């Protein structure tokens, strides 16, 4: 009996997932330039020709890996963003969840960090496509939250500066060479949101002599 379209789709998704998981494993061992289609096929337990049935070339394999994994991250973040919690709580949850995801899958975290650093070199001709995936799935959700924080008065600096600070502390915590320990997560989130003093309301002097308060 021939397979139904639904069964074919399930098989297709299973094969693609096998290939992408194998590509990530080989990348972790050999890096991008050392990863070859034949090696990916062998690691996935599939024929080389089957890789080319689903993907145009190695570049296409890795672009799909980027796209799918960033989309999954976005889905995780949407759950937090749409929770109805305060801006401060959502910022803390995004920081904690993002860091936890990277700790649970360090190979994937390292992959994204290394890829993001060399987009133009690795994906010449398609770098804007890949850059758009990072923008839509990582930058934009956080940017919207920062803008909401400014509009509601929770954040009292420009949203662009808030976004830059947010990603600076996040990327510093998940860097593959010095990733934050899980036991430090709660203290790190508190420090990120309230500073070294641990106070939820801090007043500082600006260059023009005015005072500004930062609070939950």
TrEMBL record:
<dbReference type="InterPro" id="IPR036271">
    <property type="entry name" value="Tet_transcr_reg_TetR-rel_C_sf"/>
</dbReference>
<dbReference type="Pfam" id="PF00440">
    <property type="entry name" value="TetR_N"/>
</dbReference>
<dbReference type="InterPro" id="IPR001647">
    <property type="entry name" value="HTH_TetR"/>
</dbReference>
<keyword id="KW-0238">DNA-binding</keyword>
<feature type="domain" description="HTH tetR-type">
    <location>
        <begin position="13"/>
        <end position="73"/>
    </location>
</feature>
<feature type="DNA-binding region" description="H-T-H motif">
    <location>
        <begin position="36"/>
        <end position="55"/>
    </location>
</feature>
<protein>
    <recommendedName>
        <fullName>HTH tetR-type domain-containing protein</fullName>
    </recommendedName>
</protein>
<dbReference type="InterPro" id="IPR050109">
    <property type="entry name" value="HTH-type_TetR-like_transc_reg"/>
</dbReference>
<dbReference type="InterPro" id="IPR009057">
    <property type="entry name" value="Homeodomain-like_sf"/>
</dbReference>
């Amino acid at each position: 009996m021939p397979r139904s379209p639904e069964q074919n789709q399930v098989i297709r998704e299973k094969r693609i997932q096998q290939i992408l998981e194998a590509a990530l494993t080989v990348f972790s061992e050999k890096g991008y330039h050392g990863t070859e289609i034949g090696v990916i096929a062998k690691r996935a337990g599939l024929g080389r020709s089957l890789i080319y049935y689903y993907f145009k070339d190695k570049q296409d394999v890795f672009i799909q890996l980027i796209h799918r994994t960033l989309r999954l991250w976005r889905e995780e973040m949407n759950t937090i963003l749409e929770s109805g919690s305060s801006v401060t709580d959502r910022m803390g949850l995004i920081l904690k969840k993002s860091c936890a995801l990277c700790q649970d899958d360090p190979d994937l975290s390292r992959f994204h960090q290394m890829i993001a650093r060399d987009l133009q070199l690795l994906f010449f001709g398609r770098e804007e496509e890949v850059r758009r995936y990072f923008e839509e799935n990582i930058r934009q959700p956080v940017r919207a939250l920062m803008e909401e924080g400014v509009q509601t008065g929770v954040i009292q600096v420009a949203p662009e500066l808030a976004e830059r600070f947010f990603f600076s502390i996040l990327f510093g915590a998940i860097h593959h060479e010095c990733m934050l320990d899980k036991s430090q997560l709660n203290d790190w989130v508190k420090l990120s949101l309230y500073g070294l003093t641990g106070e939820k309301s801090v007043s500082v002097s600006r260059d023009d002599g005015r005072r500004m308060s930062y609070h939950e």
